[in-house]
Amino acid sequence: MVEIVTGAISTLLPKLGEVLRKEYQLHKTVRGEIMFLMAELERMQAAILEISESDEPNKLVKLWVRDVRELSYDIEDTIDSFMVHFDKHRSFRGFIDRSLNLLTKFKIRHKIGANIRDIKSHIKEVSELRDKYKVDGVTVARPVGHQTVDSLRLQSALYKNVSELVGTKKKTDDLVSRLMEMHDDVESKRNLKVVSIVGFGGLGKTTLASVVYHKLKLEFDCGAFVSISLHPNMVGVFKNMLRQLDEKTYLNINGETWEEVQLIDELRKFLQNKRYIVVIDDIWSKSVWKTIKYVLVDNQLGSRIITTTRAVDVAEQVGGAYKLEPLSPDDSIKLFNQIIFHSEDKCHPYHLSEVSQKILKKCGGIPLAIITIASMLASKKGNQHEYWYKVYHSMGSGLEDSPDLRNMRRILSISYYDLPPHLKTCLLYLSSYPEDYLSTRETLIWKWVGEGFVETKQGSSFYQVGGEYIYELMNKGMIQPACDIVNDYPEYYRVHDMVLDLITSLSNEEHFLTRLDGHPSLSLPKKIRRLSIQTNEEEYVKQLATISLCHLRSLTVCGQGLSSLLPTLPSMCPFLRVLDFSGCDKVENQHCKDICKLFHLRYLRLYGTSISELPKEIANLQFLQVLDISITNIKELPPTFIQLKQLVYLHFPNMMRLPDGLGSLNRLQEIPNVITIDSPTMLHDLGCLSKLRRLTIYFDKWDESYEKPFIQCLSNLVSLELLEVDGTLGSTCGSLSPGPQRLQSIDMSFCTLTAFPGWMSSLCSLSSLHLILLTLGEDELQVLGSIPHLNDLYISISVNKAIHDKNKRLVIGKGCPFLCLTQFSLASSSMYVGFAQGAMQKVRDLSLYFGVSETMGQFGDFDFGLENLSSLEHVDVWMRCFGSKTGEADDAEIAIKRSLQLNPNNPTMELEKV
After folding, report:
1. Disease resistance N-terminal domain spans which residues (predicted)?
2. FRET label pair with 888: which of 309, 400, 675, 825, CA 20 to 30 Å apart?
3. What is the C-alpha to C-alpha distance for residues 396 and 639, in angstroms, rounded to an integer?
4. Buried/exposed code over 714-736 (b: 16+ C-beta within 10 A; e: otherwise)
5. What residue ranges in 162-310 does DSSP mark as E strands?
């Protein structure tokens, strides 16, 4: 497969189409030449996509692909320059002539495109004819893919004493226990059991599966261990399985010309009356598992299936997911010592202790990495200290090129080659960050958007599509969550050091991105397209002055030393599209005018810099899509700011005043800040942002003049998905037309509503609602209960004015259906709500907050009808005991427990007395 697929072609083709629009008033001949350009580029793109789906292309093809990619960048630079200077009536003829000359140069290489299909077919033929290999006595199919490596054969070489491998015994025992766990009932003993080992490449999934398989195999009638690989030949896989299940009967099956369907039928018939154990190693897709599942019949004889996969979604579909974790620090040290000193307990010499700890930290508990690096170190004689530090510094840089490291990268790279082209590009881009760098979800997505990597989809925002990219990369184990999940998503992500080493190596090979990180660098490419500066050392910063950056498209600075070069950036980097100076506190106000001369900027991040104002020249950045000026000292934006018509993301310092006329930025999709509303006009401006996905607003004051503008604002925000409102808020009555029908979450739990907003009933996608109300009555319950997809409801009641009859609770029954509600929280001074038979039939989690004294004084009991919630699983109760009489709190606890004992679900409870 080719590492980088189409360069700028995917973004260039729409631009060529845009240039053909009438307002450019191009000559008929020029229009024809542009159409020719588009046709040629489309053919090139199609040819490269063909190559990307094939196995390893020859060097000539790879060079051709690189030339096409560079050509696409050059053409895009030229056409962007034309579009920027269109108002100056710059001649377009030169662009066409230069581009056609470039195309002519590559015509001979382009002829290779006609032979691509033959090349692909030939490589597939060769792949299918490869021999099978024996691993620990188990026959497996050789994986097919870019720079194919028999990972099992390599593991066999590395894991010679697999039964003695550190950390294997406990994991083996865990898996055996899970697979062979038996209950007293006969049905449990007969059930088919499945365990899917899932984890990052190099963790030893195949090794573990092999150990467990051989340990249990004799307890079954028959067994097989087959490897699927990235591009499986299912006919070959099924033949291999049959031969292992019964070698005598199917010894010569490879010579048979059976179709896949025939083989499935034969396997099902063979396994129908057998108690079998089968290992399916290295499953890459759900569709492949679906095919294999047809074969593995559940014959109620207590058979067992073990699978291994790197993809979380595959493991979840297979079932019985067993997440294989990295080795602990102690086990990592033991394995390291075992390889180097042939003893787990031997300590390193004192002078190697510190560097060995640093090396192990970078290995991150991956056995394959530990074994590979330790084997390299064990083979080195002489000055160990110097060599060990050299290896340590090279890890993660992608520069060390020993055979062992190349082999390790090949194993880890299989996950990379399974990615579609756009995700390969997104992943390689992460090599622009240093080791252990924590990236936020927002930063990753919007950086990719600025680079043009995120492909827009009908009905989806950039953020949604970018979020899908992150999910896929995380699912494949290429990026990892670095914190707990908040609001369904991890806030921070990191790249494992071994993956960083891989993608940095690939990036270097393809000249995708150049890093200046303090490591001795390879010779720099002639055309640097993307540059990441990760050092403060002056010698590397000064090196920039000697490098041609005229083709630079992206600059990420993680150090502090580049601010001195800022005045020269516009002349050095005329086509710069992405500029990230986050955290560089030496970037100050005087530098901003220089930045505003970078007319091609799509992405500008000045997060954490020392700037306190943006100049009026910010309006020059007419292509700017993403602007992050958060954590700066900026208090307001210049009036010219509203001329940035392409802006889709804006992140500014909290409490900064937004300029009048913000509504003219009608492409804005994301504003992650709290916006202070100080006039009805601001609501009108916000209402013009019809593509806005989320809105968080704070009302400093509220009067009748805000009510209609607020409702009108919401009516216009048709793309809104999340709404948070804080501050002073009065009545928000009225109806929404058409309204935000995609709105999924509303949080008004930091402001008190004087009346229930009836317009919420028209929100068909609303799933989460948090409110503080003055009152709650039957009418409000009817409206809430009718919201079709409401899943999570939190209500806090300030005043119980709705209760006219002192001794009568407000009862929730079948008349308020709450069809999808699973979580319900209610807080009030007295618990005046009760549940009738058939109420809230899907509620699983219930939270109640109330005062003991108030509830007892108003109703004389604590009978809430909890026994009537048929799906209830857990209850959290907070009782405020202030002012209550002796024994009242205990009576309340007893009454609630009795009610739960009567509930057929036997729910659990956590109770706290405050």
Report:
1. 8-95
2. 825
3. 46
4. bbbbbbbbbbbbbeebbebebeb
5. 193-198, 222-227, 276-283, 304-309
303's CB contacts (< 8 A; 6+ apart) are 192, 193, 220, 271, 274, 275, 276, 277, 278, 296
Task: Kindly tell me if the per-residue pLDDT of 668 is higher than 90.
Answer: yes
Q: Of the candidates 602, 605, 544, 596, which has an alpha carbon nearest to the alpha carbon of residue 570?
A: 596
Selected from 3.40.50.300, 3.40.630.30, 2.40.30.170, 3.50.50.60, the CATH number assigned to the domain covering 130-323 reads 3.40.50.300
User: Judging by beta carbons within 10 Å of its beta carbon (0-12, 13-18, 19+), is residue 860 exposed, middle or buried?
Assistant: exposed
At position 241, the amino acid (one-letter code) is: M
d(CA 382, CA 873): 66
Helix (H) or strand (E) holding 824: strand 823-827
Taking Cα atoms as reference points, which of 805, 804, 896 lies closest to residue 848?
Answer: 896
Give tens-digit pLDDT for 727-754.
Answer: 878 777 778 888 899 999 999 988 888 8
Residue 887 CB neighbour total at 10 angstroms: 9
What's residue 597's pLDDT? 93
Closest CA to 592 of 611, 619, 572: 611
**In the predicted structure, residue 22 carries a pLDDT above the cut 60:** no
Taking the C-alpha atoms of residue 718 and residue 639, their distance in angstroms, rounded to an integer, is 27
The superfamily (CATH) of domain 513-672 is Ribonuclease Inhibitor (3.80.10.10)
Distance from the first to the final alpha carbon of the chain = 63
Quote the mean pLDDT of the chain.
80
For residue 229, what are its two tokens? 């690989």
Task: Give yes or no for residue 704 having a pLDDT over 90.
Answer: no
Element (H, E) at 906: none
Higher pLDDT, 499 or 104: 499
If one counts every other C-beta atom within 10 angstroms of the C-beta of residue 541, the result is: 20
811 bridge partner residues: 834
Q: What is the pLDDT of residues 547-584, one digit of tens each?
A: 888 889 999 987 665 666 778 888 888 889 999 988 78
My answer on whether omega of the bond before 421 falls inside 30° of 0, hence cis, is: no
Ramachandran sector of residue 343 (left: φ over 0; alpha: ψ -120 to 50; beta: rest): beta
DSSP class of residue 142?
P
- Asked if 72 and 48 count as a contact pair (C-beta separation under 8 A), the reply is no
Q: Which two tokens stand for residue 651?
A: 């992140």
CA–CA distance, 569 with 589 (Å, rounded to integer): 15
Q: Residue 493: enclosing H or E segment and its boundaries?
A: strand 492-494
Q: 23-59 burial by CB neighbour count: b if 16+ within 10 A, else e?
A: eeebeeebeebbeebbebbeebbebbeebbebbebee
Q: In 764-822, where do the E strands start and end? A: 768-773, 792-797, 810-812
Residue 19 and residue 85: Cα distance in Å, rounded? 13
Q: Which residue bears the tokens 């997505």? A: 445
How many CA atoms does the CB half-sphere of 112 hold within 13 Å?
Answer: 21
| DSSP line for 381-431 | -S-HHHHHHHHHHHTTTT----HHHHHHHHHHHHHHHTS-HHHHHHHHHGG
Rounded Cα distance, 226 and 476, in Å: 21
For 342, other C-beta atoms within 10 Å of its C-beta total 9
Residue-wise DSSP of 192-225: -EEEEEE--TTS-HHHHHHHHHHHHGGGSSEEEE
Task: Locate the domains of the chain by residue range.
Answer: 9-122, 130-323, 329-406, 419-492, 513-672
CA 609 – CA 624 distance, rounded (Å):
19
Q: Which residue has the tokens 């109640």?
A: 848
DSSP element (H, E) containing 517 = none
Please, are residues 303 and 191 in contact by the beta-carbon 8 Å criterion?
Answer: no
